[in-house]
Design brief:
Layout: H1 4-15, H2 19-26, H3 30-37, H4 45-55, H5 59-63, H6 65-78
Helix pairs in contact: 2-3
């Protein structure tokens, strides 16, 4: 099962950003990015909205990131 931290890390890497760059874009500390990526804290409020905007994601992507990853596998199994 994917965690929110893995989703943040994946999208950060797709953009080619470091944790420092992501932190600067969000106006938060690099340590907070580390906490999110390691599932120690969950982004909320303004930070969640900012992440959704930066990564072009929806709230549902953050609520159930593991389901999105498994959907293509289920579709292929049906074919």
């Amino acid at each position: 099962m994917k965690q929110i931290g893995e989703l943040i890390k994946k999208h950060k890497e797709r953009k080619g950003w470091t944790s420092t760059e992501l932190a600067e874009r969000l106006g938060v500390s690099r340590m907070l990015i580390w906490y999110w990526e390691n599932n120690r804290k969950i982004p909320g409020g303004e930070n969640l909205v900012a992440l959704m905007n930066l990564f072009k994601l929806t709230r549902k992507d953050f609520e159930q990131p593991e389901e999105k990853a498994s959907e293509p596998v289920l579709e292929e199994a049906k074919k």
